[in-house]
Amino acid sequence: MAYFLLIIGAMFVNNFVLCQFLGICPFLGVSKKTDTALGMGLAVIFVMGVASIFTWLIQLVLVKFHIEYLQTIAFILVIAALVQIIEMVLKRFMPSLYSALGVYLPLITTNCAVLGVAILNISEFGIAGAGSLLQSFLNGVFSGVGFTISILLLAGIRERMDLELVPKPFRGFPITLITASIMSMAFVAFGGLLG
Amino acid sequence: MKGQFLSNKLGIVKNGILTSNPTFRLVLGMCPTLAVTTSAFNGLGMGLAATIVLVCSNALVSLLRKVIPDKVRIPAYVLIIATFVTMLEMLLKKFVPTLYSALGIYLPLIVVNCIILARAEAFASMNKVGDSILDGLGMGLGFTLALVVMGFVRELLGAGTIFAGSLGSVEFGITQDAFPNYKLPDYALGIFVLPAGGFLTLGILMALVNYLSDKSKEKKEKEHEAKLNRALAVAQAVESANGVQNDAAPAKEEE
């Protein structure tokens, strides 16, 4: 039950994009078409899941040597290296998935959602025992799912909005932001779910 | 010569603040822009923190631009930025703990703020140290300006205060203490402090900036057109005058 609540919370109540403002750049930048939005979303789920595990392990090392203040530097390095390695492994062993994720993988290094989930995991679940590792992993994956849901919804709306006559100053980013605002209002309602 | 030099340097700073404002024109660094601007004071703190990191990282990247190999430049930049962010984090924790807790997770996330990496890549890696520092300053101040405007609007509408939490804060409206017998209604629009209000405020501000810049562009074009018309009229007048002379010339020959 606790894990179920964790999953719902990560996907809807604390939706990364619409409730926590993490990963806004790809949310606005890669949401013109639903298929590219889906590609970006899948890449984010993948990297966030793997990064959650690795940063948990790195934090163990940091705590052991009493150098927790290096957290930011260590995490960003690990994420950058991880993205690079994932890219190489996928290219070698899963070329079809690699070509599907393609250009979005390198972009993820500077996606604040990944570093954000790593830091939030440590501060929320700590590093004590395997339970917190599982929690971190689930939180990472399902936060990624939440990101994918919101970017897909926005991309669907934007595809339709291309056909509408939007006032000139509002074209492009402004109307997208206002759309996101209305979506965010809807997601606020999920807050009541967990009390 | 010296005046031109000075105006060049000022041009770099002005470019960052107005012409290519990172928030309204380049649309970079959206996460902190939306997240921490629930009050003008937080916006100011975030903006200044990013400015400090931006100036320092631009300076160091520019100094090392001939040392860093091209292939590993992005990781190198990220490492430089992360170092400065960590230093700033420690300083804020020690000296401004209220701001440290208000900025929360968005303070370490300055590392992945695209403005800083974008300026390192697009400006500092190709320009001299002095210019890079000025570019960092201009971009940082432009970012700060945008954050303060956002924070100001959201705080005013959402909480009914101006610069609360800092010196000289102003609270609007009639306070409940003045009317002990009535229950005054709450006029604050709470939605502006919520995420939805952040998106809405930024969308409308961005549309406003687009509208104003379109208008000034139109005005410039009209002025340009008027100038062209005037020049054309002069040219035509000259031509017709010449034409009269030309007409007159053969007539003379005939004589």
Describe this structure in words.
The complex is a heterodimer of chains A (195) and B (255). Chain A has one domain. Helices cover 75% and strands 0% of the residues of chain A. Chain A has 9 helices and no strands. Chain A has helices at 2-13, 24-29, 34-64, 71-93, 95-101, 104-107, 112-125, 129-161, 173-188. In chain A, helix 3 (34-64) packs antiparallel against helix 8 (129-161), helix 4 packs across helix 5 (95-101) and helix 8 crosses helix 9. Chain A is globular and about 60 Å long. The two termini of chain A are 15 Å apart. The relative contact order of chain A is 0.20. Chain B has 255 residues and is mainly alpha-helical. Chain B is 70% helix and 2% strand. Chain B is built from 8 helices and 2 strands, in the order H-H-H-H-H-H-H-E-E-H. Chain B has helices at 2-19, 30-35, 40-63, 73-95, 97-103, 114-124, 129-158, 195-254; strands at residues 161-162, 170-171. Chain B has a two-stranded antiparallel sheet. In chain B, a hairpin with a 7-residue loop joins strand 1 (161-162) and strand 2. In chain B, helix 1 (2-19) packs parallel to helix 7 (129-158), helix 3 (40-63) packs across helix 4 (73-95) and helix 4 (73-95) crosses helix 6. The N and C termini of chain B lie far apart (59 Å). In chain B, 37% of the residues are buried. The A-B interface holds A 18-25, 28, 69-73, 76-77, 80, 109-112, 115-116, 119-120, 123, 167-170, 173-178, 180-182, 184-185, 188 and B 27-28, 30-32, 34-35, 74-75, 78-79, 82-83, 85-86, 89-90, 105, 108-109, 111-114, 117, 191, 194-200, 202-204, 206-208, 210-211, 214.
